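Internal QA ticket QA-208
Title: Verify multi-chain structure generation after dependency bump
Assignee: T.L.

Test input:
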Amino acid sequence: MENINEVLQLFLATENFIAIAVGVLVGVVVGSIPGLTATMAVALALPFTFSMEPVAAILLLVGIYKGGMYGGSITAILIRTPGSPASACTLLDGYPMAQQGKAKKALQMALYSSVIADFISNIALIFFAAYLAKIALNFGAPEFFWLICFSLTIIISLASGSMIKGLIAALLGILLSLVGLDSVFGSQRLTFGNYNLMDSISFIPLLIGLFAIPEIIEFYRKKIVPHIRAKASGAGVSLAEMKRSLTSIVRGSLIGVIIGAIPGTGATAAAFISYSDAKRRSPHSERFGKGEVEGVAASEAGNNGVAGATLIPLLSLGIPGDVITAIILGAFMVHGLTPGPILFQENLPLIYALFLGIMLSSVILLFVGSAAIRYFSLIADIPKSILFPIVLMFCVYGSYAVNNDTFDVWLMLAFGVMGYLFNRTGIPAAPFLIGFILGPMFEDNLRRSLLIGSNDLSIFVRGPITWFFIALTVGSILLALYRFISARHKAKQAANEPEANA
Amino acid sequence: MTSSHSTGSPLIKDLWDVVAGVVLLGFSLLLLFYLIPNYIGQPPIVQNPMMSPRWLPTIVGWLLAVFSVLMVVQGMLVADDSEASERRFERGPWMRFALMALALVVYVGLFEMLGAIISGVLATLILFIAHPVRTLWVYLLAVAFPVSVSLLFTEVMNVPLPMLPF
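Actual output:
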């Protein structure tokens, strides 16, 4: 009873409601502007959370994440430009529907399926996070060491292109995370005598630099693209269409939940799997890709089903599954909280207040999404030439706000240039960020294990949990190698085919 | 207009990969043979080498060197031919890019000297000229934005920004 009172006290603060509403609104707006991403918005919003209470701070970021997921589908449907990679699947049927004058129907279906999937995903989060955290209470340093090894190996899957580049990115991230004072011996590591680096590299300038500055640089590097105007026209979704699509929505949501709970897989995969599953089961599979409303429902359910589920490994194990959850992890750290089983033990009311807020965000998404459909043209007509200078201001001020020092602003700029070079060379930024976060955790658990085991390496194979994670680590490496080899094989076959035809 | 991405000569399938691989290889060697020995302090007694502050950076350095070599090999053998590759785009005029770079340097470099508002106004004006923005009244926003965003940070978020030089 005391806990319930505490949860309600934490949740019912006005600041939380404002944070969720503003977060979802910002997410939808940013997501529906081509060129601006939800990741960028979450990174830029992080400095705003410094002066907020932890629950409101996390809810603001979660709201932006969820709003951004839906917002990305608006541009995918109306102007064939997915606001996020996960929305790429939505345009397969959404854009043909818009061309047929059924844009409003597609947008409404995307919204309703997103909200339903989001709700199902939140339920899964509430049930599974606590359960997983309970299991994780039995983990000691060696178990966490292997869990982090497993998470580092599945980083490979975050690298959508080359496995080698993904690994290089993760290694660079780990290396940068080691800059500063050594936690055991207190000796300086790669600080070059600069006192600003002694407390390690600040997370926020790195984040802003990596995810916002490259977008600005690329905008001014690329040829100017003419602005496309679009309007949500036509009739809305009928009850019969909603009923017909409901099975695909629920199935897609469950696919999203399962995929989202596995770190490193992501919403894009969930959207495409859900879409192909709906297509395979549909009696009208020939209509898919030509403007089938069920296709929009399935892909949106898949990508939004991931949203709540990605928070399962973060909250229960302290492991971020993707870039946005890595940023949310940063927000926890800013407020002196460490996600994981201990958080469930020591701050249970906070966790449940967060759960309530996350549930509420689904309802708010429904209202904000409906308004966005109506006023989309107003949002999308803001030229990027006006938006990007404002984004730059947020980048500079946000970085400065960390320590009130220009050094962090220079650092942000340096990471921005690095992010741009990453984009040009195809080195993915996501494994870099995950490496940066997991690097110190890896070293810390390795050293703690050695200290507990008095330098005896057998501590790393001390029980069934360690063996379980060793098996998962080896399995994920083998799977990545298999995928790498089969992708090469397919590419070779595809290259040989035209030659053979000739 | 030229494409930013070139697949290089027949000997090199992806020039960017080869160049990046060589740069990373150079960096990893610099890390292993100069930075780690000179810039990571080693305590006098370490019971287990895995406890040493140099252990993980050394492992990372060697792995980085190996994967950099693999990246060079990949660049020589495999072309990035995917149609959807984000590495392919049509470049705009170089002046636009140069002005953007100038805006970034002006903003960050003069941030403390001129204050957030004046450096913000300068950077925004340069970015508007870079695009270029042709509607004259929009240039008024170059003053309105830095003032309002600065006030948002100082008044709402309590961030003590250096507002003005005086």
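Spot checks passed. Chain B touches chain A through 72 residues (CB under 8 Å).
Status: verified.
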